[in-house]
Specification:
The protein has ten helices and ten strands. It is α/β, with parallel strands linked by helices. The protein has one domain: Divalent-metal-dependent TIM barrel enzymes (TIM Barrel, Alpha-Beta Barrel). Strands 1-2-3-4-5-6-7-10 form an eight-stranded parallel β-barrel, surrounded by five helices. Strands 8-9 form a two-stranded antiparallel ribbon.
Length: 303
């Protein structure tokens, strides 16, 4: 396995500065964010460390040379928008840019792009699954034709303004099974983040064996469930009203068991720290320190 981090947390750095920091802090790889330059400016989103619009082989070669100079690779290209949005313009823009990200990957020598499936926040599950079956086969075929795999992060994007369904269909093992039945392609899988399962009160380790062949990439983010708050408000509220994103080692994920379960199914890909712990996100120094702390927790487990 390779230890990396999601570049969004260093949004005020250039790509070269991100790579230099990764090298200095003994990270092996970076999942580089590829949002369009116009945003959106969502919290922890909308970051453009690599502009894929009009990517050419010459420009890709320059980027690869940057990586080689620092001794840090890209684990994947990341773009987490909503291709199934109920707003037609938003959905089309997301699909169009995702195709650009997919097109850029092979120019950079990469085989993995990470994204969200998306969802219409006001439609029930079955309607969203029908929309998924209409939209995503063509996107996966676009990736297949270019030798690219799509890893879908399992974050439900459930907040007050996206309640009750959320902005990303791919939130639970039951839904993953439906998705993979609809699109059985070997180019369609998961960017597996245990924190989003803990947030939903699901064991984050048990699904690894069943979905082992679908795990293309992983995020390392922890989650703390506030049991007193849960006792007070129950489960019928947005999950982040009773949960808090934390650095690895500060929440409820058993990282030794999680990494061990990945090793048991012969996963040998990236483990990328994703920092959304608000105890660290308010200053650049805090965000840099969060990556050092996370490294020290995870590196002994995956070295």
């Amino acid at each position: 396995m390779q230890l990396g981090f999601v570049s969004a947390i260093l949004h005020d750095f250039s790509l070269d500065e991100v790579l230099a920091f990764a090298a200095a802090e003994r990270y092996q790889c970076v999942e580089v964010m590829c949002w369009p330059a116009s945003g959106p400016g969502r919290k922890y989103g909308g970051v453009t460390h690599l502009n894929v619009a009009g990517m050419t082989q010459a420009r890709a070669d320059d980027v690869r040379a940057q990586c080689e100079r620092h001794g840090v690779s890209f684990s994947a290209l990341g773009y987490y928008s909503n291709p199934l949005s109920g707003e037609a313009d938003e959905a089309e823009a997301a699909r169009d840019h995702l195709r650009k990200v997919i097109d850029a990957a092979p120019l950079l020598g990469l085989t993995t792009v990470n994204s969200f499936v998306g969802a219409h926040t006001q439609l029930p599950l079955e309607d969203n699954l029908r929309r998924f079956a209409q939209v995503w086969p063509d996107l996966i075929k676009h990736a297949e034709d270019r030798g690219v795999r799509i890893g879908i992060e399992n974050c439900p994007m459930l907040f007050d303004n996206t309640w009750p369904f959320g902005m990303n269909l791919a939130r639970t093992p039951a839904i993953w099974r439906r998705m993979f039945e609809t699109i059985p392609s070997a180019s369609f899988g998961l960017n597996y983040d245990p924190s989003h399962l803990v947030m939903q009160l699901i064991d984050p380790i048990e699904p690894i064996r069943e979905f082992s062949s679908r795990i293309f990439h992983t995020h390392a983010k922890d989650m703390r469930v506030d049991r007193d708050r849960l006792q007070d408000v129950g489960t019928l509220v947005p999950p982040m009203e009773r949960s808090t994103s934390k650095l690895p080692g500060s929440g409820e994920v058993d990282w030794a068991r999680w990494v061990g379960a990945l090793a048991d199914v012969h996963y040998n890909g990236p483990v990328c720290v994703e920092v959304e712990d608000e105890a660290f996100t308010h200053t650049l120094e805090g965000r840099q320190r969060s990556l050092r702390i996370s490294r020290d927790v995870l590196q002994p487990l995956i070295a």
